[in-house]
Amino acid sequence: MIRKTDLHSEKIRNLADSIGIDALGFADASEFSDYALSHSRRRNPKLSLPDAKTIIVAGIYIGGLTLPAWINPWYGRTSRLYLSEFFLDVVKPLEPIVNLLRNTGYKAIVCDGSEEGGSVLPLKLAAIRAGLGWQGKNTLLISKKYGTFLALGGIITDAALEHNTDQEPDRCLKCDKCQQACPLRALDQPYVLNRNNCLSNLLQIEHLPEEAQSVMENRVGDCEICQEACPWNKKHLDHSLATSMTESFQKKIEDWETFFHLPDLIDLSEEGYKEKLGILNTGISYDLFHRNVLIAMERAKKVGEMADK
Ligand code: B12
Predict the structure, then answer these.
(1) What would the pLDDT profile of 61-72 be if each residue is shown by its tens digit?
(2) How far, in Å, from the CA of 298 to the mean position of ligand 1?
(3) Whose CA is nearest to atom 61 of ligand 1?
(4) What share of the chain is helix, strand, coil (3-state, %, to 5)?
(5) Helices 95-103 and 9-18: crossing angle, nearest 10°?
(6) What is the C-alpha R_g of the chain?
(7) Engineered SS bond to 131: which of 156, 164, 263, 307, CB 3.0-4.6 Å?
(8) What atom of ligand 1 comes closest to residue 36's alpha carbon?
């Protein structure tokens, strides 16, 4: 049994390393007073754990992963986060750290977007406070080493660990490539996402405006246009930093290659959707997914007809 006094930040860092977590930081668990959603539980970790002292923020690299089929109109396109199984936060990989904390007599609550009321942290702001990077004009956390391709996870604990005190400066400077690239101008105000114009949002809600349908191309879930335009992601788009996870990730991603063939997806039943895509844990309903597939299929036919002309 490890005594409370023996649990040092180093022990958690070494454990995180051994379980394939690419980025890790500790932040104080005070309120996020600059968090725009003032009513949200995410704003104050102490609402989830009254004697919270530390937020442990973890990042898993999902860059470099790509599916050649994504540029083929006959295949449904999603995103690296979508296929990473971390769409609703990095949760499972954090279990060994949670167990270490609890086995040492500390409390630990994991931010889990798939649980009702479980999304207890503004992970991007917590990651900034933990020293993992800065918030870019596309509102995402940008890391010098991993770009925006860190899927994030977080733990609120009453363990007093070595809190990061040195936040990364904003390195977006004059660049506005993400803002220029967004086809629906969701980033016209830098650092603020107008989610009503964000394809990633629109593809998972009821109302999908005509204009969005006209620019979604073969996207059936999520959109990465603002990420692909970001200079900090350049080195992560076609090849990846070799991390312990990436090989297994790329392999997992390739397994989806043929699955998203639109003519097959058209006939995918709700049971098939849950059975096959349930593991991705996106929380997106079958009806919305199927709607997106139908629209992408109509477009593929048009593109096909144009090509035949
Ligand atoms: C809700 C949500 C969404 C929503 C809304 C996004 C948004 N920016 O609000 C939708 C569905 C659109 C979305 C999309 C995506 N998401 Co999302 N999302 C979340 C979630 C659950 C909460 C984010 C949040 O707090 N939003 C509320 C806004 C207010 O907070 P904010 O974005 O930090 O906004 C700050 C600034 O923009 C500014 N601001 C914002 N609004 C306003 C308004 C005013 C008046 C002012 C003054 C300031 C201001 O201040 C805020 C700081 O307080 C997090 C998980 C989590 N628990 O944190 C994942 C998360 C942020 N998403 C993530 C990702 C990867 C994406 C996508 C890139 C997925 C993809 N396509 O690949 C897209 C990209 C869209 C984008 N450019 O942000 C990752 C980010 C990882 C990273 N490296 O940054 C997270 C952390 C999920 C994860 N576990 O990894 N997402």
Answers:
(1) 998 766 778 889
(2) 30
(3) 124
(4) 40, 10, 50
(5) 150
(6) 20
(7) 164
(8) 53
